[in-house]
Amino acid sequence: MAHFQELAKQQKTVEGALALSAMPRLHEALQALGVTDAAALDGIQVHYRLQGLPSRYFGEVSLPMLALSLQTTLPLVCQRCFEPMPESLEMTFEFALCDEPPEALLEDETVDWLESTDESSLEVLVEDELLMALPISVMHEEACTQLQQSAGEKPNPFAVLKQLKLDK
């Protein structure tokens, strides 16, 4: 976190890309969502930009700020038709750096907080944000074309009852 504190206070910017191999929990989560294509998993690159922002007041407390931008494409698989469904993600987050967040920070839904510890790393921060962005259920927004073709018109099983009622 000392690195994050220094970056925020000096308002510097760090940019780069992380491979999926640097994020084992994300790799495991993608496999749990049905992504089995090893080449697709190996090719994932997460482009990031971590930038120090001017300090901001939350109540009477001034806190150093960071902005994190992420851009990647995840090779997800539709759970309905099992076809590839690449998901492009472009996300931006703002963080206030502090040990104990003031009440005003907790009330601000646009800013998250990072606890001041020496164990934090950029890789862990990026991985955490991507894990939270993963969908719970991966499905095409529109009906899957393969399923549409196989689902034809089926007769209504209650049509016979309607006919019995009309015969009385």
UniProtKB/TrEMBL annotation:
Keyword Flavoprotein appears in the UniProt entry? no
Q: Which UniProt keywords are present, listed alphabetically?
A: Ribosome biogenesis
InterPro entries the record matches: YceD, YceD_bac
- Pfam short name (any one): YceD
Q: Which family does it belong to?
A: Belongs to the DUF177 domain family.
- Function per UniProt: Plays a role in synthesis, processing and/or stability of 23S rRNA.
Q: In its UniProt entry, what is this protein called? A: Large ribosomal RNA subunit accumulation protein YceD
Organism for this UniProt entry: Methylophilus glucosoxydans
